[in-house]
Amino acid sequence: MTDITEFKAKDGSKVYLSPILDLFNNEIVSYNLSYSPNWAQVEDMLMQAVKGLNKACGVILHSDQGWQYQMVAYRQILAEHGIIQSMSRKGNCLDNAAMESFFGRLKTECFYGREFNSREEIVDAVRDYLDYYNHRRIQLKLKGLSPIQYRKQSFK
């Protein structure tokens, strides 16, 4: 599942996060941080995700109907790697609820009560949080394990 969210620094500058969330174990399997929402950001995030992906594994990648996900180039990358595209119904944010929930957690746990003076500070904070989230942040629905611990245990 994928989407893009925005963060704003005290100086007014912005940072955009484009991650892919694996719904099996809630792991962020790839992401890109950019100072503007653009195709290169989404392409980089997608190419990170498809490295080493087994075409036969039946991956479905869900998104909203954002312009990035409607581009021919986006659809071509998915097709070349055997990924099935899924998109939310028009005007229905509930179809992307898991991603919005992740963004809410990220903003609460990483940003609540803190001020970031520049976009560079935001980039550092988000990178640190995503590392923490994937490797050390336990989740009850993952039997008290972090996303990566859960994946490793599941495939033993």
Q: Can you walk me through this structure?
A:
- It holds the Pfam family rve_2.
- This is Transposase.
- This protein has 156 residues and is of the alpha+beta class.
- Strands 1-2-3 form a 3-stranded antiparallel beta sheet, with helices on both faces. A two-stranded parallel ribbon has the order 4-5.
- The longest helix is centred in the last third of the chain and has 17 residues.
- It has one domain: Nucleotidyltransferase, domain 5.
- Helices cover 42% and strands 19% of the residues.
- It has 6 helices and 5 strands.
- Strand 1 and strand 2 form a beta hairpin.
Give the topology.
Elements: E1 5-8, E2 14-22, E3 27-34, H1 39-50, E4 60-63, H2 67-70, H3 72-80, E5 84-87, H4 97-111, H5 119-135, H6 147-154
Parallel strand pairs: 4-5
Antiparallel strand pairs: 1-2, 2-3
